[in-house]
Amino acid sequence: MVFVFWAAVVFLAYVIFGYGLLVLGLSQLAPARRVSVTAKPLEVDILIPAHNEAACIADKLRNTLELRNTQEHAVRIIVVDDGSTDGTAEIVRGLALPQVELVETPGRLGKLAAMNLVVPQLTGDIVIFMDANAMLAPETLEALVAPFADPEVGGVCGQISVNAKAAGQIGRAEALFWRYDQAMKAAEARLGGVCSAQGSIYAMRRELVPDVPPGAADDFYISVAAVEAGYRLDFAPDALTEEVVTEKAGKEMGRRVRSTEMGWRALMRYRALMNPLRTGWYGWQLLSHKGLRRMAPFALALVFLSNLFLIDQGWFYALTGLGQIAGYVLVALAWAVPAVRKLPLVGAGMFFVMGNLAMFLGLVRYWQGRESSLWTPVREG
Fold first, then answer.
1. How far apart are CA 260 and CA 319, in angstroms?
2. What percent of the chain has pLDDT over 70?
3. Average pLDDT over residues 307-334
4. How do residues 89-100 score in pLDDT, each as one tens digit?
């Protein structure tokens, strides 16, 4: 049990902290990649899937049309309305914006099917994918397109942030997570390339965009297709959007479970890329960041259970065992009573436990053959 306990502790230390510290340190030894301004204007298709986004779609389109475009890229915005019942399509039509094209699906197909329907009809050099509720910094368009001047770049990931001041306890913890995650993305970009994109904002060469199979995470599946095709994924920190995190723990939990299930399905499709002997730095990064990290819930369970067996084997194991028990009890209480989340470290602890529990449940769903297809995005309000 001592071996099990310490093996699990070392594994957790690596996937939670060690990998990030290693990639941050190694990236400092790698030469900085220069991003040149695109030599010529490109045709850019901006794809915005939407289902019941009436509350934000008008602001989203205005925000997108106001993005800086000093390179005079030819920009076309395509809103894919996936069976909305709240008047989303009517709002888009009513705005009558000449740069905006509305595509309505024949009923609710789900995001993946809706995107697969539209992508083959696109004609631009670059496709930018973004969420309907993602409000973007003015530099986003140019920041995403500029790296494509490098012929080795197949996709570009934007940067996600969370406004910690406006967020609740879960949101503050997630804001810290995203700062750490985006620092890792910047470091990964200097080594083997970013592991994958996050769906709020990213761009791809159009010819590399694949059909997404049912039940796979579209952002992961599409972006990693660039790596499979022999290109690299770059990172554009100035392509910035701010996420809104719900404090409704149950809904946030459901989103994370689906994200893990669909992300793991996509990862298994590209599992050969996790071999460093084939893909070098990228293989190590993908294995550590996306593969081994998903095993953390099982390591946490081993640490807890082995600690219970060792709790009478000295003061150290007694202290760590009682500390784990107290921590999990406090997190369970915080889940039921939101006011408890305001206690020091409880919000962060709840975010950590919730994230790992969601990963466990998402992997169980995958192994059971359960497949997410239709869902409603988590929104505040």
1. 32
2. 91
3. 93
4. 999 999 999 999
The rounded distance, in Å, linking the Cα atoms of 166 and 134 is: 16
106: left (phi over 0), alpha (psi -120 to 50) or beta: beta
231 neighbors 154 (Cβ within 8 angstroms): yes
CA 92 vs CA 48, 62, 97, 187, 355: distances in Å: 12, 11, 8, 39, 36
Assess contact for 104 and 81: CB atoms under 8 A: yes
Closest by alpha carbon to 221, among 155, 289, 151? Answer: 155
Rounded CA separation 370/4 (Å): 31
| HSE, side-chain direction, 13 A CA sphere, residue 377 | 24
Which residue type occupies 64? T
**What is the set of domains in the chain, with CATH numbers?**
1-30+246-372 (no CATH), 43-169+184-245 (3.90.550.10)
Q: Which residues lie across from 243 on neighbouring strands?
A: 162
Model confidence, pTM: 0.89
35: pLDDT strictly greater than 80: no
356 CA to centre of own chain? 15
Alpha helices in 14-110 (DSSP H): 19-27, 57-65, 88-95
The pLDDT assigned to 381 comes to: 47
Stretch 160-186: mean pLDDT: 73
pLDDT over threshold 80, residue 341: no
